[in-house]
# Entry
Amino acid sequence: MAFSLLPKLSPCILFLLLLSSTCFTSTDAYDLLDPNGNITINWDVMSWTPDGYVAVVTMNNFQRYRHITLPGWFLRWRWAEKEVIWAMMGAQTTEQGDCSKFKGGIPHSCKKDPTVVDLLPGTPYNQQIANCCKGGVLSSSVQDPSRAAAAFQVSVGRAGTTNKTVKVPKNFTLEAPGPRYTCAPAKIVRPTQFITPDKRRFTQALMTWQVVCTYSQFLTQKTPTCCVSLSSFHNNTIVPCPTCSCGCRSNSSQSGKCVNPGTPHLASFVSGFGKNEFSPTVECTNHMCPIRVHWHVKFNSEKYWHVKVTITNLNYGMNYSDWNLAIQHPNFDHRTQVSGFIYKLMTPYASINDTAMLWGMKSQRNDVLIQAGPNGKVEGDVLFRKDKATLIDKGWAFPRRIYFNGDTCTMPPPSAYPF
Ligand SMILES: *[C@@H]1O[C@H](CO)[C@@H](O)[C@H](O)[C@H]1NC(C)=O
Ligand SMILES: *[C@@H]1O[C@H](CO)[C@@H](O)[C@H](O)[C@H]1NC(C)=O
Ligand SMILES: *[C@@H]1O[C@H](CO)[C@@H](O)[C@H](O)[C@H]1NC(C)=O
Ligand SMILES: *[C@@H]1O[C@H](CO)[C@@H](O)[C@H](O)[C@H]1NC(C)=O
Ligand SMILES: *[C@@H]1O[C@H](CO)[C@@H](O)[C@H](O)[C@H]1NC(C)=O
Ligand SMILES: *[C@@H]1O[C@H](CO)[C@@H](O)[C@H](O)[C@H]1NC(C)=O
Ligand SMILES: *[C@@H]1O[C@H](CO)[C@@H](O)[C@H](O)[C@H]1NC(C)=O
# Structure
């Protein structure tokens, strides 16, 4: 009887039944490289108004290597009572909703569950506030902390007008292209302190609540988006990405959503795709991944060895701006030299000292990985110092693991490595 029920239960409940252990870690991904990564939203009430308050909402991306790309973030919540938004600066709601009950001034939004989006760069100054208007793009905290925050101001009406009567909004949802986030309920925290421009006085919010959103592997589409191929100067075999790394190329016309580069109608086909959509339209390959990372060992001397890293975009519908790679290899250390990319060791914890992050540079125009085609790749060189301790197995020159924009790339099996 018990067993006939099992197939209907979620893996989480099954896990609970069988091991009677806590299950929460199995749904919210534990990211070894970024265990505390989160996006924190602070809602600071700055002043009371006759029927509500004015708040500044700030979003900080505290994730080391996950960022938010175009078309940017969407933030939604549900009002606890009958609140309305009179006005906003630095962002806007996507819908006004039904404001027909209002006779005089018409609110900016009357929706019970407003969805807020950032304004675009170039918004008139009188609609901006500090840190706004980046088209919803948030950098990762390692790549560019100065661009890792967003902010907007909201004037809320029909709300409480003291810190005892204000009701905290519910059900915050943060949406971004690609990764999915889960947000914990808003918590009232110690009011945020602000320092005045002359740095001689602290002011503070009248009331602050905070929402912490974390990346959820459980909600994020599980299909890999990238794969790794390998080669080496001492063996002219190229070890390709494993077949079906990200999907299988199919002969049937419905499921085979891939494009042959030689197709005469390619241009019109491609222009029909939505810009930067997240259902990738990829070049037809045996691995069907939108991103391929190629690791080529170029030379090997007594003291050094040298690798060329090439990232190829095989997706016709997407420019990856602010892309990043995290690579795990025991030889990474502060003596490693990288040209073409920015290099930073990720050494947050004693147990992880073998992982580095690489990303492109604006000055080299390789910070955007352009859509599939002749310009759809970037490359850089890595010069490692030799460390005898790690040169034991035959795969020593190849990475243990690679992540593109935080997603694990499918690697060839070690048995296939060139030697
Ligand atoms: C969110 O990230 C910040 C910065 O790394 C950290 O101080 C805080 O503890 C994190 N919050 C949670 C709930 O993980
Ligand atoms: C919370 O928001 C999500 C997504 O917007 C929605 O699916 C869900 O039903 C909401 N929950 C409640 C209790 O309103
Ligand atoms: C509300 O304000 C009172 C005094 O002004 C303060 O003591 C209290 O801690 C505040 N409560 C919150 C939730 O901020
Ligand atoms: C696809 O075509 C090849 C030969 O053209 C055939 O061997 C294979 O079985 C086909 N696969 C599917 C899924 O139809
Ligand atoms: C990618 O960028 C190029 C050059 O800026 C542009 O021409 C192209 O339309 C963009 N593609 C997408 C899918 O946004
Ligand atoms: C890296 O960590 C490993 C295991 O924690 C340790 O044995 C090794 O000495 C560390 N290496 C460096 C360069 O700190
Ligand atoms: C090159 O590597 C491949 C894959 O591991 C192997 O099968 C082949 O024998 C190697 N070739 C030479 C000349 O060593």
